[in-house]
């Protein structure tokens, strides 16, 4: 069984001799939590980092089609792949953080990597030799060379490396600054998740308006240079707060323990189930200063065999003689926690298929609709995601400050609605948003085909006379669904996964986003190939396609996901709920 203590490293080890009692009578140094005092540096870093990374990525579809002259289908597929990889990389980063680096060092390395990636991407716009020559409407555009693509993909690689460390570690690192053993610390963690996401969406709001406007209407080099400068500021802020941070020392790879449980259970599969788990299972004194002691549960009882003491040689003192043949109840219960989460986690993959459309086909729809506000101002197509962010930004403080206190009185729960209830509401709202998207797209296409158009896009599609503001309600509903689902997802993983795997918890939601992007890209490819011979749903010119049917298909998948989620939520047992 793994033991260990959580060392305090905030620039230098604390000299305080305060100690906490462990279950076995031992002592460990007490951590000095600074709580909200450390938040200006952590949330400030996160705000500027998100302003930088989102300001870089939010308009990439337009950048790839208009500067690198890629076809819209190819650009959407590449962007789905990039977003998927960027969101999948945190799993590797979480493993390295929890096992070896610690969250502070992982964040430091990742922040510098993101800065390098943004700088290279800015150079692809600023240096004439790093992008194809400009071309006008109706002209034949030159394709990017292999060397130009190489620099572009190199910048993407550094951005992926940055996301591998920042995404899984930034939120858990912030939560680490609060004492989870006190009531004020627990309330601080609950509020931190909401306000962290509030600053996140606020940064997205600025990125989707000011930065995208500069990129689309002023200059791509300046528009990409601003996020790079903001990322530099994020790095400076992060390192300024070093002396205040609680830096939890990694206890070694948690994945080794997981494999040991499966190996030990497989070796003892022929043994009978223990009649009295309290007496028959190996349950030594709990010594970890980080991980909460878990009670035995009666789910997945086949794994209990890993903790059966089959002979006197299995135990040496208070430890197993061979950890691959005998595991503790604590190790087994940690594995059960992970297995219980998987069905709920899997619903997020399908959920994100709807969410990622706002960065791909919503942008393409906006390009072929009337984006004018007044006579002269035109909303950048990629800025329409701002309406989803606006809904999130407005809803989070309303929910946290106004609704939660009232819901506590009704439900008797500190968080108002349970985490699973909030996730379910988010999934239902995303399905509603897809239905609205299908109706609006059908109307946009109908007007484009039956009424005079307003011109032609650079890719050759006619611009519908329908106002693009009709897309705002669907985006607001989609943003509201994220406010319900995404925050509760991350908080759910953080609270339900064992403490020494919390970077993994931070990565799981982004892993959902990754697989959602891959699934979306897969659906785009299948639909394009299946319908391409006839009435291509996803034609280069959306007026010749049937994007509305694609949205209806996603809505149908969403209905299935709602039913599946309800089954998973009913079956789920929260961590710490002992067997009756």
TrEMBL record:
It is found in: Membrane. It is a multi-pass membrane protein. One of its GO terms (molecular function) is transmembrane transporter activity. SUPFAM superfamilies: MFS general substrate transporter (SSF103473). GO terms for cellular component: membrane. The chain crosses the membrane at residues 104-127, 147-166, 195-214, 220-240, 379-399, 506-529, 549-567. InterPro entries: MFS_trans_sf, POT_fam. Keywords: Membrane, Transmembrane, Transmembrane helix. It holds the Pfam family PTR2. Belongs to the major facilitator superfamily. Proton-dependent oligopeptide transporter (POT/PTR) (TC 2.A.17) family. PANTHER family: OLIGOPEPTIDE TRANSPORTER-RELATED. This is Major facilitator superfamily (MFS) profile domain-containing protein.
């Amino acid at each position: 069984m793994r033991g260990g203590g959580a060392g305090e490293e905030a620039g230098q080890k604390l000299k305080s001799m305060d100690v906490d009692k462990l279950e076995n009578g031992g002592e460990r140094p007490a951590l000095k939590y600074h709580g909200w005092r450390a938040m200006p540096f952590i949330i400030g870093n996160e705000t500027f980092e998100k302003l930088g990374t989102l300001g870089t990525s939010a308009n990439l579809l337009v950048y790839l089609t208009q500067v690198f002259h890629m076809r819209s289908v190819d650009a959407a597929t590449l962007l789905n792949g990039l977003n998927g990889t960027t969101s999948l990389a945190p799993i590797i980063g979480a493993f390295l953080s929890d096992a070896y680096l610690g969250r502070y060092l992982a964040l430091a390395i990742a922040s510098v990597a993101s800065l390098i990636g943004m700088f290279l991407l800015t150079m692809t716009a600023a240096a004439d030799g790093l992008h194809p020559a400009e071309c006008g409407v109706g002209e034949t555009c030159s394709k990017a060379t292999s060397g130009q693509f190489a620099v572009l993909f190199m910048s993407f690689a550094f951005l992926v490396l940055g996301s591998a460390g920042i995404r899984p570690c930034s939120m858990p690192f912030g939560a680490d600054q609060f004492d989870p053993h006190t009531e004020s610390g627990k309330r601080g963690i609950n509020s931190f998740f909401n306000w962290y996401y509030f600053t996140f969406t606020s940064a997205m709001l600025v990125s989707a308006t000011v930065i995208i406007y500069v990129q689309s209407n002023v200059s791509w080099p300046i528009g990409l240079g601003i996020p790079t400068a903001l990322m530099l500021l994020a790095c400076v802020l992060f390192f300024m707060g070093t002396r205040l941070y609680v830096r939890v020392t990694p206890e070694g790879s948690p994945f080794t323990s997981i494999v040991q449980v499966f190996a030990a259970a497989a070796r003892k599969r022929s043994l009978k189930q223990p009649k009295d788990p309290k007496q028959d299972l190996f349950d030594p004194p709990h010594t970890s200063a980080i991980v909460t002691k878990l009670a035995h549960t009666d789910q997945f009882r086949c794994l209990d065999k890993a903790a059966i003491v089959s002979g006197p040689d299995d135990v040496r003192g208070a430890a197993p003689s061979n950890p691959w043949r005998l595991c503790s109840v604590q190790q087994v219960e940690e594995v059960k926690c992970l297995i219980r989460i998987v069905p709920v986690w899997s619903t997020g993959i399908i959920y994100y298929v709807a969410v990622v459309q706002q960065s791909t086909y919503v942008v393409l729809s906006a390009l072929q609709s009337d984006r004018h506000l007044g006579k002269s101002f035109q909303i950048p197509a990629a800025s329409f995601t701002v309406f989803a962010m606006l809904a999130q930004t407005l809803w989070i403080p309303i929910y946290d400050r106004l609704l939660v206190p009232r819901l506590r009185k009704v439900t008797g729960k500190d968080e108002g609605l349970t985490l699973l209830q909030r996730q379910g509401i988010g999934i239902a709202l995303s399905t509603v948003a897809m239905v609205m998207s299908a109706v609006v797209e059908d109307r946009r296409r109908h007007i484009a085909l039956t009424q005079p158009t307003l011109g032609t896009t650079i890719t050759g599609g006619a611009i519908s006379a329908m106002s693009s503001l009709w897309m705002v309600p669907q985006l607001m509903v989609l943003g509201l669904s994220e406010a319900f689902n995404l925050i509760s997802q991350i908080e759910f993983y953080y609270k339900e996964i064992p403490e020494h795997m919390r970077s993994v918890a931070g990565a799981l939601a982004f892993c959902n986003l990754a697989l959602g992007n891959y699934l979306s890209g897969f659906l785009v490819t299948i639909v394009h190939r299946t319908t391409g011979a006839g009435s291509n749903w996803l034609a280069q010119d959306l007026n010749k396609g049937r994007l509305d049917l694609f949205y209806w298909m996603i809505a149908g998948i969403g209905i299935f996901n709602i039913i599946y989620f309800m089954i998973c939520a009913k079956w789920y047992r929260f961590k710490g709920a002992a067997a009756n």
